[in-house]
Protein: Phage baseplate protein
Amino acid sequence: MAALTEAGLLGTWEAAQALPAVRRALALAVAGGAQPSTVVDLAVGRRDGFLLALRESCFGPAWQALVTCPACGEELELELSGEDVRAPAPAVPAATVTAAGYEVDLRPVTSRDLLAVRRDAPDARRRLLQRCVVAARQAGREVATAELPDAALDALPGALSTCDPQADVRLSLDCVTCGHHWAAPFDVATYLWTELDTYARRLMHEVHALALGYGWSESDVLAVSPARRRYYLELAGSTA
Ligand SMILES: [Zn+2]
Structure:
C-alpha cells in the first residue's frame, strides 16, 4: 500500500478517534488497504495484517515498545522487527477439534463476532466461541451449537489460535534485571492506535505553534516538509 500523507494520517485519526475499539480497528484496516465492505467478515488476524501494513508504511519496519516485567516490575524497552509481530499464515483457515466426546468444526473469530458479543456480558466468552462453531457432532449425530457443553467449548481457543495465529501473537520476552521469561500478548490495534494518537497530537501542536507564529493555515503548515517545519518551530520559539 502507498503510505498516507500527513494530512491523510490526520484524517484517519480524526475518523477513528471517536470510535469504540473494534470499529476503530476496522477503520484503520481500511486505511491500510482492506475492502470496506468485507473487512468486518475477515478473520481478526487477516484484518490485523492490514494494520501491520498501515503501520509499517507510515512509521517504518522497526517497532518500539515498553513492557513491565511481571516478576520484578522493571520497565523494559523493546525493539521489535516485522518478523517479531507477524505470524506465519495458517496451513488451513479452519479446524476440527475433538473434545469431551464431541467433534467440532471451527472457523476463526471475525470482527463481526466481536461486535455481536458484548465483552462485559457474563457469558461473553461462551457466546463468542459458539459463534465460531460451523458444525458439531457426537457419535456421528449432528448436535446444535447451543447443546455443546463447556468441556467441549473449553477445547476451542487453542484451535482458534492455530487457524488464525496472527490474532494471537505473543512476544517471547526475557527480563534483563531478574531473568524472568514470559510470553506477552501483542495487540497491533492498540499499539498502532497509541502511536497514531501521539503522532496526530504532536502534528496538531506543530500546526498550532506555526499558525500562531506565522499566521499559516493548517494546509500551509502540512505543505512544509517535517525537516523545514522543525526549523521554523525553533525560529518561532526563539522569537516568542
Ligand atoms: Zn524482571
